[in-house]
Design a protein that fits this description.
- The chain has one domain (3-303): monomeric porin ompg (Porin), CATH 2.40.160.40.
- Helix content is 8%, strand content 59%.
- It contains two helices and 13 strands.
- The two termini are 33 Å apart.
- It has helices at residues 3-19, 173-178, and strands at 30-42, 57-72, 76-89, 97-108, 118-130, 138-150, 155-167, 185-198, 201-218, 229-232, 250-269, 272-285, 290-303.
- A twelve-stranded antiparallel barrel has the order 1-2-3-4-5-6-7-8-9-11-12-13.
């Protein structure tokens, strides 16, 4: 077995064993802690418009954090949370990253009753630091508001709006211009369902329509599409710094529409919760180019 795969498997098994040794309740008022381990495969990590430029990779993310939950006036809950996550890519190690996030979550159900609606709002900020891709570094701001309702005894529906904006931090004006391909903001409307199949098995589905900035990676051999901004992106090329004859790949930004479908199942196993999901992206750029991307994740969640 290759060394990278053996390391990933070993770490995953260790964390799985640890997650079976203790458990705690994350809900209700008080402090909670959480450990997450996610192994994923991405079909088109380069987000390329051309099939010849598409590249795939596997990643392992370990995240630990927690927060404080407080029930308010009997019909609302306020949560403050923070996490730190480390991601290791199997092949494109320049994308190894450390993410530090903090945020707040507020849920309120104005009227009592089993079938009445409740409202959820969330805001967070995540600082992204990459091993060797300064162009992607910045502060990701996210906002989310939704309306939720129990449709049947086993099904919950929701409709909501999200906003995502990657902002550069500590970069000069010239650096921001050079890295502009990754300076993106996206508006999103989504619809979702959670369905409880049994006491130990639940499924979920969500469709999201996004509009805003998208980036993609391309090589000169495929021909560069029309971009609003371009940034040299050496993460996916084979060029060495001393090879002046090698033409690097580029990342480009355009505006576009993104269709995102996420399907998953979740179930407990001893003291750990297991989450399996598949996400499909279809991007239709305003430059008349399209690309698609599959993302498969297997996650372990341990509350303590």
């Amino acid at each position: 077995m290759p060394k990278g795969k053996a390391t990933t498997l070993t770490l995953g098994l260790i964390l799985l064993w640890c997650s079976q040794q203790a458990s705690a309740e994350v809900y209700g008022s008080g402090w909670y802690r959480e450990l997450q381990v996610v192994a994923g495969h991405e079909d088109n990590i380069s987000r390329s418009f051309y099939s010849g430029d598409e590249l795939s990779d596997q990643a392992l993310t370990v995240s630990i954090g927690g927060g404080h939950s407080e029930n308010v006036r009997g019909n609302a809950r306020f949560v403050m949370f923070g996490y730190i996550s480390a991601t290791r890519q199997e092949e494109f190690t320049d994308l190894d990253r450390l993410a530090t996030s903090a945020g707040i979550l507020y849920t309120v159900q104005p009227n009592p009753g089993y079938g009445t609606v409740w409202y959820r709002s969330k805001a967070s900020a995540t600082l992204l630091h990459y091993r060797d891709s300064d162009e992607r570094e910045g502060l990701l701001l996210q906002g989310d508001v939704s309306v939720n309702k129990r449709l049947t005894t086993s099904t919950i529906g929701r409709i909501g709006y999200r906003y995502n904006d990657l902002m550069f931090v500590g970069k000069s004006g010239s650096e921001e211009d050079n890295d502009a391909a990754f300076d993106t903001a996206v508006h999103e409307i989504y619809f979702g369902l959670d369905h409880q199949l049994s006491s130990r098995l639940s499924t979920y589905a969500e469709y999201a329509y996004r509009d805003g900035g998208v980036w993609s990676n391309a090589s000169f051999k495929a021909g560069l599409p029309q971009y609003d901004a371009e940034t040299i992106d050496r993460v996916f090329d084979d060029c060495s710094p001393d090879d002046l004859r090698c033409v690097p790949r580029y990342a480009g930004r355009t505006t576009g529409q993104i269709h995102n479908l996420n399907l998953g199942v979740a179930f407990p196993f001893r003291a750990v919760n297991i989450d399996l999901s598949a996400t499909y992206y279809y991007v239709d750029g305003d430059n008349d180019e399209t690309y698609k991307n599959w993302l498969f994740n297997a996650g372990l969640i341990w509350n303590f």
